[in-house]
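Before relying on records like the one below, remember that each one covers exactly one chain. Contacts with other chains, cofactors or solvent are not represented anywhere in the record.
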Amino acid sequence: MTRKREAGSADATTLDRAVATRKRSSYLDAVDTQRRLLRLKLTSGDLLRKPSNAHQARRMRRLAEDLGDQAKSQLRAQGRRAFRGDVAVEIDLHALAVDQPAASPPAVKAYLDLLQGVVYADDRAIAYLRVTRHASDNPLFRAVTEDWIHGTGPRFPHGPEGHAEVRIAIQPLRTYVADFDRVFELRDEVFGDDSDEPIFGGADFFATSFDHGADDERLDQLREDERDDGNGRGMWAPGVMKPETLASLRRMRHAELRALYRRLLLDGGPGPLDRPGAAPLMHRWLWQEDPNSKRLDADDLFGPGRFLLPQPHVAPAATTWKDDLSQEMSALHGRWRILDVLVGAPLALDIAVRSNAHPNARDLDNLARDVVVPFEEIFSANERGTVASYRVYRAQQDTGAPGVRLLVVGDGRLAAFEDAVESARFWLLARGPRHDDV
């Protein structure tokens, strides 16, 4: 490969050294993750939330005191103290036993505020946030029989009976980023290719559920059947079949079409650049070697399910950022008919704030709220609970076009990716930094 940089530059030398030691560094980061990962389990009769009236404020104040005591007690039991740098936070809200559970954004805000001064100094230290909500309004509980026949790999809501449980995992941002990068660096070693029998959890993240051969052909057949139905041809001709039989066949065709479109639209997931901070080490090293390759990696292709939204305002404006998002989302929804299949599907949102400047010092939980709420209103027919999970983080502009990049995937895809993260870490811990020699 021809070098297109100065061999003696400080940045180039630093990258070369980091690439040469990356396997050992990844192993040490995996060890550090196991050592520094803090897990909390907070239980209560209801989810903590930001109150909307005086009575609720008194009840939430008592609940917050109890949950705060639980967090401090668990911190002491683990011999831990508050993190001092940027952190990655993952929150699982288990509220199946709650009749009317709070939506994700207000509940998440309340729990993150609860941990301020206990687990981290300020919630501005949160540079990555992932939220999953297990509740009775998950779209899986509204699915019809045909959805189960044609659907693929959902994440099933689960949780304890009789009370709410919130599980929170916090770790230094550095170890989370190392976990993320490791999934792609060790993909072949840990998960093999599509022809291999999966051994480790998360292998299905790298398997495509939409077959561009067989599924494309089936879509053509179903669309042809729709045309025959509309024109009264073949078995759809008057008098050929009983009306109730035709009605049943139409329901089945509609469900299969919807499942195939969902599979096509929601089959993605986080890629190597979809994480906090600057681009991964190997990408930066390759871009130094061949600057032209950066366009292939970092230039986004936007379309249905992958949107570029405006950045949060950094100065007073005539409209709010939330209003700007609603207007842009409405325009996107009207542009692509295929987006109608998002209604009724459990979804995950990947929200990347790409800017080299701190975006108006907005906390990630508030930023996610301003995205999730209008998204459910516009793309999910205002069905609360459709966004079952989301991840939100700040990324530098070298990872793609500046703005807020919104990726829409199936909730099961994010669950598979999280399984892959743990599998890659445990695989490396079991084999050590010289795993190529094993």
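The chain has two domains: 10-209+267-437, 214-264.
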